Amino acid sequence: MHIAVLIKQVPDTDNVKLDPETGTMIREGSGTIINPLDLNALEAAVKIKSRIEEECLITTISMGPPSAEYALRESLALGADEAFLLTDRKFAGADSWATSKVISEGLKKAGNFDLILAGEKATDGETGQVGPEVAAMLNIPCSTYISGIEIEQKSVVVTRSLEDGYERQRIKFPCLLTVLSALNNPSMPTLKGKKMSRRAEITKLTAEDIDIRPEELGLKGSPTRVVKVSTPKKTRNTKMYKGSKITEGIKELFDEIKGEQII
């Protein structure tokens, strides 16, 4: 069995900044981590490998700058067997559509996969579009909001967490699943895993290695356009009540809360 896990290196959410001119994210100078939900996807792959009797290979793949290699090395320390990095300046500024095109072509280069796992969404975008788009481009079935996975011989049975309950699906391989944090608790890397990941070779693919026209890459190939970026302004209108005015202040506060239908 061959499992692919889509990994994204994202900025630390406390340090996210946007370029007001281009509408793209400023990634330089901010701390980076593996997208948390991608860790749940990787943990699912590792658990599947430990449970099935047949031989299983786990491949992680990421699109990003050269620094994304650190995220892939962490994925190797957590149990992945090999890693691919799609990196090229021509990929810069890609929206979810252009990103999905690159990743889908990268997956074709990396091997024939029975199962592709991804986090439900990334913390720096919150769209949840890349997983389903990759599945559509690969012409394979996709299921989302996965909170349970059971592997069968030629298919997978999944539990989907929906607003009004749960849904069970049986999907034939190959397929793509996007998972929720409720699926599992990601493990910590072992010392042995960390040592191995430092020596491991990361396979790098550039724009020349994948079958996509230049005009379909990066910002040029992105149909999404950020027209304007603005930061919400925080406004406060403070009133102070002291001494004999405290009772009046409490009454006014109560009326204000009641008027907002909070109580």
What would you say this structure looks like, in words?
- The strands form 3 sheets. Strands 11-10-9-12-8-1-6-7-13 form a 9-stranded mixed β-sheet, with helices on both faces. The chain has a two-stranded antiparallel sheet with strand order 2-5.
- It has one domain (2-216): HUPs (Rossmann fold), CATH 3.40.50.
- With 263 residues, the protein is α/β, with parallel strands linked by helices.
- The chain has helices spanning 36-51, 69-77, 96-110, 130-138, 191-199, 246-259, and strands spanning 2-6, 9-11, 17-18, 25-26, 32-34, 57-63, 82-86, 115-119, 142-151, 155-162, 165-172, 175-179, 203-205.
- The longest helix is centred in the N-terminal third of the chain and has 16 residues, at 36-51.
Main attributes of the structure:
263 residues; alpha/beta; Rossmann fold; nine-stranded mixed β-sheet; two-stranded antiparallel sheet; 6 helices; 13 strands; 27% helix; globular
Protein topology:
Elements lengths: L1 E5 L2 E3 L5 E2 L6 E2 L5 E3 L1 H16 L5 E7 L5 H9 L4 E5 L9 H15 L4 E5 L10 H9 L3 E10 L3 E8 L2 E8 L2 E5 L11 H9 L3 E3 L40 H14 L4
Parallel strand pairs: 1-6, 1-8, 6-7, 7-13, 8-12, 9-12
Antiparallel strand pairs: 2-5, 3-4, 9-10, 10-11
Gist of the model:
With 263 residues, the chain is an alpha/beta fold.
CA(first)-CA(last) distance: 56 Å
Topology-level CATH name = Rossmann fold
Succession of helices and strands = EEEEEHEHEHEHEEEEHEH
Shape category: globular
Instruction: Give the number of domains.
Output: 1
What structural class do the secondary elements suggest? Answer: alpha/beta
Query: Please, what is the average pLDDT?
Result: 89
What is the CA-based Rg, rounded? 23 Å
Named CATH architecture: 3-Layer(aba) Sandwich
Strand arrangement in the largest pleated sheet: 11-10-9-12-8-1-6-7-13
Strand content range = 25-35%
Number of helices: 6
CATH superfamily: HUPs
CATH class: Alpha Beta
Instruction: Count the E strands.
Output: 13
- Uncertain parts: none
What percent of residues adopt helix (DSSP H or I)?
A: 25-40%
The largest pleated sheet is described as: 9 strands, mixed
